[in-house]
Amino acid sequence: MEGFSSCPGQTLKLLIGIYLYADLWRVSSTCLQHCCVQFPGGGGTGMLPAGTLTSALPFPCSDVPLELSDTSLLSSVAETRQLMDAAYNIKKNLQNNALTPAELLSYFKQPVGGTREAVQAADYLQTTLSLLKEKLRWAVRGDFNVTDLLTPAQVEVIFKATVCDQQDKKINCASSGYRTITGECNNRRNPSLGASNRALARWLPAEYEDGVSVPRGWTEGRCFSGFLLPLVRQASNKIVRFPLEQLWMDQQRSLMFMWWGQSIDHDLDFSPESPSVAGQTVTPAVCAPSPPCPQPRIPPNEPRITNRRDCLPFFRSAAACQRGRAVQEQINALTSFLDGREAAMAQRLWDRNSQKGLLAVNHNFTDRGREYMPFGPMRKEPCLKASGAARIPCFLARGRSSPSPRLACMHTLFLQEHNCLVGKLRSLNPHWNDERLYQEAQKVLGAMIQIITYRDYLSLLLGCRFHRLIPRCRGYNESMDSRISNVFALAFRSAHASVPPTVGHLDEYYRPITPEIQLRTSFFAVWRIIQEGGIDPYLRSLMADQLWDRLFEEVERIGFDLAALNMQRGCSDIQLLAGYNSWRKFCGLSQPSGARKFLKIYGTPKSIDIWIGALAEPFVKGGRVGPPMACLIGTQFRNIRDGDRFWWQNPGVFTPCQCCSLAKISLSRIICDNTHITKVSRNIFQANRLPPWLCELQSDPKAGPQTVEVKEHGGARYDL
Asked: What pTM did the predictor assign?
């Protein structure tokens, strides 16, 4: 590089200033190609290879501005806001007679409240960085991370201008014996750890096509490990799909087992979809890779979809605000702690007007005297459309409850249990105020959910691996990373393969109520609960199937292939998870031997999607998942427990006597106390052939009296 030493040393930020003002100036290409540059954080002086810079200004290098001004950066942020703000009106497109699968998915996954603000800030940040990168792309050869070309001060300017600094501000933790609704200050050394609206943890490095944000398979014809990635619909058709007559019921577990897992998943992770689609709010039927929506395409010879221009509706999950390099990380809108509440909804469901610590209830309808959840706003939404002339909207607990009657029943059950606990606490401690009553009831309710999950549910899910993966509790570990991992958010979706094709409901004598409800017609059908007997028939039954190809189905068009969407989430979503083999290695498992079916589709085991690969494995002994799933799920639940300062077994959370009483609770008892059901299963998660347990009994004969002592001015007792 002749003449290199003659050019004055310039920092790389000087070059950025040149590129961003390329429309105003041109500079000598000879000078630029022979300039010595300092890479920020690079540990020394480096050279840009000849030919990487292609344009020039008609004045010497010494005349070029040495710094990229804050004004220029702020201008890029302003440009980003103009491009994106219109995309945040997606609900306005929910027309009364045009609820397509894409629109329903968007409604179901839209962020609200503080989560919406966090998602919007992250969208501003990511789009601003992408805009800057595009302005530099003509001048820098190959893939690069734009944050590597900015000084820390410049990154901070962008971080503040996009309001991401508000998502990462310093947290001052007050002394309190209760959880915060947002999960902040659970870990006093790192107050944001496990809090809502923060990034999911990543246990293995992301696999982006460009190392930053472009999904694998985005570039058509590009190979990975020597093979093209298969279409996710193709993999779903060949591996997941099988005839309905081959469906079989698990003879050891009730369907309550599966729906409890779904409820727990809704307590731990929610990755909303980003509403920011440049210039449009709903992805069109024509499948074009329009960021941030890599649409799952329809493969050739598809048996049921004839329109080759069609695609499966899909939106990428929203990113979180992250300082440092521009690699995208996915946001978790919920806390990582098993506490039985969602931050955004907990604030809205707390009935502050009552001043009694109660959760808000429905004032339009009751379940023969028992409360329903309150309704959300009366506006255009799927539940109103599903109810027809009845005009019954979704419950306030958002789309995560309303899509399924059974999930709505579970949420209703625990709303009633909270208010029942408040009533008992208030009668024993009439001097307690609204805050104290609410917090104490939530504390007990959270402990109940933790006990049922770890004692009853996980032991049946993980089988013989349970005690090895989740050993006996040894107390709070401040160094434990309690955050939910992105691979867990995908792995815990294994229940999606366990849902049958109908939604059964049983009368008080446990006889089927006819006709059965087809699963595909049950979504967002809150009206069925209100007008067809309340929550009891669904809790008696909890028998369903068929979630493979009918989710949010629109007649005469594509149903949602949830298996395909789960794989798309893993390989081309923001998560960009490592492949199946990498996760087996992470878990200390050997490489699989019998993978012929997969190799015909993927070509190499390195590209097998974790969700489909792990789902296809034989179950561990006594469990309902294979070894990789057991490892990932067990590791996550151990982290959740050990990293939770308010875990029910930790010293100081409850007294020893209270812990002994709490250990006797059961989901069967909760159902008895909060419904009109008089007979329940003895072991609620297992298929029972024994006579049912009668609710008239004071307690489960195996558990003994279920009481908790609440010490306040000498102590008090109340029945659970």
From this structure: 0.81
